[in-house]
Amino acid sequence: MKIKHLIIFVLTLSMSLPMCGQVTNPYKNLFPQGTIIHDNIPYNNDTLKKHLLDIYLPANTKSKLPLVVLIHGGGWWANDKYADLGYMKKTIVDLVNNGFALASIDYRFSTQATFPAQIQDCNRAVSFLYDNADKYGFDKKQFALIGWSAGGHLATLMGLAKNDNVQTFFTPNTTQLFVIKAVVDFYGPTDLVLLPGNADEKSPESILIGAAPLARPDLAKIASPITYVDRNDPPFLIIHGEKDDIVSNKQSKLLNSWLNILGVQNELVIVKDAPHFGEMYDTEYIRKKVIDFLKWNLTH
To answer: Where exactly are the structural domains of the chain?
Structure first.
């Protein structure tokens, strides 16, 4: 992941957001009328701004809802729980209109704490959602993840490593009873050693693990989703751009190959001419793929 490309990526996402404070939701008006929104819920019993999540519930729902947890991108050191909503507006609206509850989460940046802090936070957030499922109306048995870029990496890692019982991926006293039923991975890194910044100590992947991946392949392996692929993993929908020059689509092709070898249900969609992120991922074709995939695996 090249630094200059990532800076452009982060700045572009930041420019797409209205000027607002940390606790102001810039996309409340995006959601269908009647959507119930719970903003800035602390999920770790502390006051860290990166330990907050938002919940979006469809209007007039009487039954328990399948929950889709959204994990934002930004190279593990930038953006927030609103960032990817800005260019995925139609997909987000479709999810709510199709009866899915959403939770968008923040996590500590790699500049604040090195890995595994990020996956610990993501697991802690999902654990909180599981523990409070009755309060918010979630179906505890129907949890899925969607992640973009660095968030795709974290969503994929969560989905693959959950059944491996990796205790270092959880903070103490965290409920581990939840099960991830499906993962949608938008252009997430899957093998840190294969990223272009693998020898650069200042690259995002190096900052994440605290060393250049080529110098510490042991740390890179622990943080790489493909390490945890096995036959018992949940279904995956993997989406990547043909012309992504920040995270090569070879990362998703590698994950797809490993899942195929082990017989895990998955589909890889290479989006023609698409860069690393943007509205080319919010088309009707991809939205239908995402909705159909989640419906099949959560409500079928």
So the answer is: 3-18+26-299
Task: Write the DSSP assignment of 131-187 as a string of letters.
Answer: HTHHHHTEEEEEEEEEEETHHHHHHHHHHHHGGGT-GGGS-TT------EEEEEEES
Pairing of strands 52-57, 101-105: antiparallel
Under a CB-based contact definition with an 8 Å cutoff, are residues 58 and 65 in contact? yes
- Tokens describing residue 235: 């279904």
| CA atoms of 193 and 202, how far apart (whole Å) | 14
The topology (CATH level 3) of 3-18+26-299 is: Rossmann fold (3.40.50)
List pLDDT tens digits, range 63-108.
899 999 999 999 999 999 999 999 999 999 999 999 999 999 999 9
115-165 confidence digits (pLDDT tens): 999 999 999 999 999 999 999 999 999 999 999 999 999 999 999 999 999
